[in-house]
Design goal:
The complex is a heterodimer of chains A (about 375) and B (about 230). With about 375 residues, chain A is an alpha/beta fold. In chain A, about 55% of the residues lie in helices and about 10% in strands. Chain A has one domain. In chain A, a hairpin with a 4-residue loop joins strand 4 and strand 5. Classes of the chains: A alpha/beta (about 375), B alpha+beta (about 230).
Chain lengths: ~375, ~230
């Protein structure tokens, strides 16, 4: 990397340049935080087949109208936990495939990700999990945009061993297979283009003046490369280094999601098992209500008692589920809170540095392209 | 006789809604705070047998009057209630007595919800969001609450034309709670109502801090709890 020293530039630019290079050099030597996420491809061509994947924290899919939560069987606080927790299982599934570059869980969708996965929890009870998953590459091409449904059989539930995904592994496998299927339709050149666009989009975020001329966005959100930067463009090198620095932080955030998964997987499995049983009881209640429908003459005590008891057991089952939801959150709440604080701190650090990097890079761009006064 | 009974039954067949739209809307905070622990005051309240006797007596008089208006020769005093209606009233009385045996009520109330916990029974639940009562509906019944002035009214409509209404009223000094429970059956010409009273009490506090957890069940500590 070279710094554009020019005698007539203000001292602040010199200093900024020095700080950026020093800082990035230091970050460039940082030890990788995770050993199981793969490596970040700096050389685009060599690693083209192993695109990086960013899995964003899910949208919990909580209806804004609080009054419908009970009817829809939505436990908002637990949905928020699931939104943090489930992306890690998607990530693990992709890592275990050994077909991708670095796979990371990120707090929010990253439009410059080589492949970005986002999703919404449509429904989640003890027996069925429905996720709407959307995956797109950096060029805006949609890879997946559909619902995935997973159901738990009794056999699966009985054999589960605290993975945090009782019986739903098939669903995660299906998502991973679908991503792989789309990736395999791309040739090497297309994959290289995705990686290039990803870096240019990232550059556009950090230094819009320097990268604005390289890509264009179509009305449907698609990104097209107008022209590529020169091979030895120092800006590209700097952006790649800035990105590597951000990856170090992203990996630290990813570690937090991994820790969260490790800490609450067993409690989460217990919760799902309780919910599965609750659903089972609810079905028994419904069957009991149907079976006793014709018991007793109209107006008899037996008839009234049956009608009352059917409602009573139905409500007790529902209320027991509410109690378990509170118990679940009591147990995992402190872990979630600690994780959110740490992730918040890391994000705040990145945002602060973003502003700094942005300023320095824009100034460098001006120094390198501007005419002498 | 048949015509007289048809008249009574026709009146009972279409009862007005217990919770009107007006009762379901709430402008501002809830009118009364019912929260706390309440224990049954056995010195006050209805004796189910006495109420049953009165209900049957009134029903008999009503049916006799109805019959006399059609057949003046029919006299008062004779038992003019058909057996199925008598059975239906007995059934309602028995159910009302059973579901109002509760010794303790524990009421939780916040800005939007009221939950009335009852031992060995489901908790009566009332939800008011955005100033409107939210009903709880399922295939086996519909539960909704409303405010009639300072009185909280809970109504559950069940299968086979059974309806149960509880009306909760807190005394001005907030020390007593009156609960009027009315059981209505489409098979009976009249509803059956029982009145119960409760006195506020302070639930004993424990030396232990306990929380419910999922994997460790109930966890208690004499100090601060750290999970």
């Amino acid at each position: 990397m070279r710094c554009p020293f020019r005698a007539h530039r203000p001292l602040s630019v010199w200093f900024g340049c020095f700080v950026l290079l020093g800082f990035l050099a230091q970050q460039g030597h940082a030890e990788p935080v995770l050993s199981d996420i793969g490596t970040t491809p700096v050389d685009v061509e060599q690693n083209a087949s192993r695109l990086n994947v960013s899995v964003a924290v899910l949208d919990p899919g909580i209806p804004a109208d609080e009054s419908v939560h009970r009817d829809l069987d939505v436990f908002p606080r637990i949905r928020r936990v699931e939104a943090l927790f489930l992306p890690f299982i998607i990530r693990q599934t992709l890592v275990e495939m050994d077909e991708w570059g670095a796979v990371r869980v990120v707090p929010k969708a990253d439009p410059s990700a080589e492949v970005g996965v986002t999703g919404t929890i449509i429904s989640s009870d003890g027996e069925t999990l429905v996720l709407h998953v959307r995956a797109a590459d950096a060029s805006g091409r949609i890879w997946i945009d559909r619902q995935f449904t997973g159901s738990v059989s009794d056999d699966y539930a009985d054999n589960d061993n605290g993975s945090g995904s009782p019986g739903y592994q098939l669903l995660y496998d299906e998502i991973a297979s679908e991503l792989l299927r789309v990736r395999n339709t791309l040739n090497n050149k297309e994959k290289i283009t995705i990686a290039e666009i990803s870096l240019l989009r990232y550059g556009l975020q950090i230094a819009p003046a320097a990268f604005g001329d390289f890509v264009t966005t179509s009305p449907d959100g698609g990104i097209t490369v107008i022209r590529l930067p020169a091979e030895n463009d120092p800006m590209i090198e700097r952006i790649a280094l800035v990105r590597s620095t951000e990856y170090v932080i992203t990996d630290a955030i990813d570690t937090k999601y991994r820790e969260l998964h490790a800490e609450i997987a067993i409690v989460y499995d217990t919760w799902r098992e309780f919910r599965r049983k609750t659903l089972h009881y609810a079905k028994e209640d419904a069957r009991r209500a149907t079976d006793t429908e014709d018991d007793g003459e109209h107006g008899s005590y037996e008839e009234l008692r049956n009608a009352y008891d059917n409602y009573k057991y139905h409500r007790i089952t529902e209320q027991e589920q509410d109690r378990l939801a509170v118990a679940f959150f009591t147990e995992v709440g402190p872990t979630i809170e600690a994780m959110e604080i740490r992730v918040g701190e890391l994000q705040a650090w990145v945002e602060e540095k973003y502003a700094e990097w942005q300023r320095i890079l824009e100034e460098l761009f001006e120094v390198e392209t501007g005419l002498p006064e | 006789m048949v015509a007289g009974y048809l008249l009574i039954t026709a009146c009972a067949a279409k009862p007005p809604p217990v919770i009107t739209d007006n009762m379901k809307s709430l402008d501002g905070p809830m009118p009364t705070d019912l929260s706390g622990s309440w224990e049954r005051d056995y010195t006050r309240g209805d004796d189910a047998y006495v109420v049953l006797g009165e209900t049957l007596y009134q029903l008999n008089r009503r049916s006799s009057r109805a019959q006399r208006s059609l057949q003046p020769t029919v006299g008062y005093g004779a038992d003019s209630i058909p057996g199925r209606h008598r059975e239906a009233v007995f059934a309602m009385a028995r159910l009302a007595e059973e579901i109002t045996r509760l010794q303790v009520l524990t009421i939780f109330q916040n800005e939007n919800e009221i939950s009335i916990a009852r031992k060995d029974d489901y908790a009566i639940f009332c939800a008011f969001y955005d100033g409107v009562a939210k009903s709880t509906e399922s295939g086996v019944g519909t539960e909704v609450c409303g405010w009639d002035g300072d009185h909280l009214v809970s109504n559950v409509t069940l299968m086979d034309g059974l309806q149960i209404t509880h009306r909760f009223t807190v005394s001005r000094d907030a020390k007593r709670l009156r609960v009027i429970t009315t059981v209505t059956s489409s098979a009976a010409p009249v509803p059956f109502t029982l009145e119960r009273f409760y006195a506020r009490f302070e639930a004993p506090t424990s030396d232990f801090n306990c929380v419910e957890t999922l994997s460790m069940k109930r966890v208690c500590s004499t100090g601060d709890l750290e999970l």
